[in-house]
Amino acid sequence: MDYIEILQEMLRYIDANIVEELSVKKLAARAGFSPYHFCRVFQWEVGYSLMEYVRNRRLAYAASELASGRRIVDIALDYGFETHSGFSKAFRRYFGCSPEKYREHASFDIPKLPVLKKTKQYITGGIVMEPKMLKRKAIKLAGFALTTRTRDGENQREIPKFWQDYMSDGRMEKLHGESFLKSHVEYGACFFENPENGEFVYVIGVEVKEGHAIPEGYHVCTVPEALYAVFTTPPADESNLVSAIQGTWNYIYSEWFPHSGYEFDSNGIDFECYDERCMAKTGKVIDVYIPVVKKQLG
Questions:
Q1: Could you give the CA distance from residue 64 to residue 98 in angstroms, rounded to a whole number?
Q2: Whole-angstrom Cα distance, residue 213 to residue 215?
Q3: How far apart are CA 59 and CA 294, in angstroms?
Q4: Hey, what domains does the chain have and what are their CATH numbers?
Q5: pLDDT per residue over 45-79, tens digit each?
Q6: pLDDT of 153 above 80
Q7: For an engineered disulfide with 33, which of 38, 39, 193, 226 has Cβ 3.0 to 4.6 Å away?
Q8: Contact at 8 Å (CB) between 89 and 134?
Q9: What residues contact residue 196 under an 8 Å CB cut-off, 6+ apart?
Q10: Taking the model in full, what pTM does it have?
Q11: Is 287 helix (H, G, I), strand (E, B) or coil?
């Protein structure tokens, strides 16, 4: 009897019936095991208890629907959560941030089904991208702002266009010629405005010198002090830099947070940092800063 094949088929069955009632007794009977034995085998091979896995898969499917713009409470009810608050608590525990925050970088991607022969390697440390942990003081930025929403991937279309316009219409040269400029490093920061409809302000800015006046016409904001998990994107060229950045965001929220022991610091602001490394013709990289705190138990 090949346990891996049986369990892999059970994972497919769970996905196919993700919005249906699923219980230990029902799943064990379908697999042909006693409930006790099935739970032991499942825990050993998959790395999660049976019902914890079901709950996490429901959260993953719910996360994939956040980009649709549907009400969060409706998504929660579809996946077996009786209240918005109960769903939000479970979502934060698993993904390390609120559903509203996750919506900023949500996509319609259906969560990939785990492949059990790879699961052991992953659980024992086969992480493809590990961040460095860094504490940074508050940063005052001046630059330009775009108000956008996460609905239907609007932000993933508008932010790249915002950057293109900024670099081609003279605003970049003007900003980098100002006397208040502290350095030429650019920041792309997300300030969440309206959690329920996914609206937030995305700022392209530079750090300013202390005590310098900022002329009218610039958006001025402060990124608060925080502990950050800092991810460096995979090397890319001009043609695939955007996809490398968006892929890194997806990895952070879909893969890293659930296994990290950290959660998103709700008092912080996440941002991208563009320094001289992203100016090269090939091998372009940027750093993604995620404010984090240790995940609370219970």
A1: 14
A2: 6
A3: 21
A4: 3-123 (1.10.10.60), 132-294 (3.20.80.10)
A5: 787 788 889 998 999 999 988 888 789 999 999 99
A6: no
A7: 38
A8: no
A9: 72, 100
A10: 0.65
A11: strand
